[in-house]
Design goal:
Layout (H helix, E strand, L loop, with lengths): L1 H27 L8 E9 L9 E9 L5 E8 L2 E12 L5 E8 L4 E10 L2 E5 L4 E7 L5 E8 L4 E8 L5 E8 L2 E12 L14 H9 L8 E5 L2 E7 L5 E10 L2 E14 L1
Length: 264
């Protein structure tokens, strides 16, 4: 009986210690989960177009109840007849397998089929065009190709530093590099996945469907022929990216991109 009472006292003491530790952790270590946001709209800006606040094209992004991207709609505010819808289809495993593209102005419809393997995702059009996305084990894109069978292959190669910051892109045709863009002076408070060559339709879809990444920590503040300025909202999201060129100390505004978000 004495051993039983001692054992009971020990159990009660252990429970009190656990409860005390729990309350201590609750008081001293309040873990605040970081909110995540989904892009709901991207618009490109044309510095030569003063109407519609400079907006050139708009892309709207729609998600289902599981936050899976299901459609991308592109339109131009200056042309009410121009609209292209991209409807996404997934298999039973949740993998993107088809993009149905509907051009409302011409009533043309085209299906793009997606195949994937380790390190590579391919998008096949109904004609002779293929887009290949190559990525590494960390899901960073290393190369993209636009293949026109019987014609040529355009490519972009992506280079990053030790922080996985996108510092250089080489582009060209049929293995021959024809131009190079370099990015510098990164501001590291938030990641930012967009850059000068990102396509808001196909590249956006592939990035969300397969968790691809273009850039690591931070936003580039300059490129080899100019610089960027960013407007940030209260949640730390970029709501506008302004692009400036700088040739021989002549600075010109080249347009940019605007972004809208919703909480994930």
């Amino acid at each position: 009986m004495k051993n039983f009472k001692n054992h009971l006292r020990f159990d009660l003491l252990l429970i009190l210690i656990i409860i005390g530790a729990t309350y201590s952790c609750s008081d001293d270590e309040v873990i605040e989960s970081k909110k995540e946001y989904l892009i709901t709209q991207i618009s490109t800006l044309d510095a030569t177009q003063p109407d519609f606040d400079g907006v050139d094209n708009i892309w709207d992004y729609e998600y289902d109840e599981d936050q899976k991207l299901i459609s991308v709609t592109q339109y131009n505010p200056r042309n009410t007849f121009y609209k292209i819808e991209n409807r996404l289809s997934y298999d039973t495993n949740g993998e993107l397998v088809k993009i149905q593209v509907i051009n409302n102005s011409t009533q043309l419809q085209q299906d793009y089929l997606i195949t994937y393997e380790e390190g590579k995702v391919s998008v096949y059009g109904m004609g002779n065009d293929i887009t290949n996305y190559y990525y590494n084990s960390d899901r960073f894109l290393t190369r993209t190709e636009s293949v026109f069978i019987g014609s040529n292959t355009n490519f972009l190669n992506y280079f990053r530093n030790s922080n996985n910051q996108l510092v250089k892109i080489e582009g060209g045709t049929d293995g021959v590099t024809q131009y190079i863009t370099e990015y510098m002076d990164f501001e590291t408070s938030n990641t930012f996945q967009y850059y000068l060559y990102t396509n808001p339709t196909k590249d956006f879809i592939m990035r969300y469907a397969f968790n691809f990444k273009y850039n690591g920590l931070g936003k580039p503040l300059s490129w080899d022929y100019g610089y960027y300025e960013y407007d940030i909202d209260n949640n730390g999201n970029v709501i506008e990216m302004k692009i400036f060129s700088d040739f021989n100390n002549v600075r010109e505004y080249e347009g940019g991109m605007r972004f809208r978000y919703k909480e994930k």
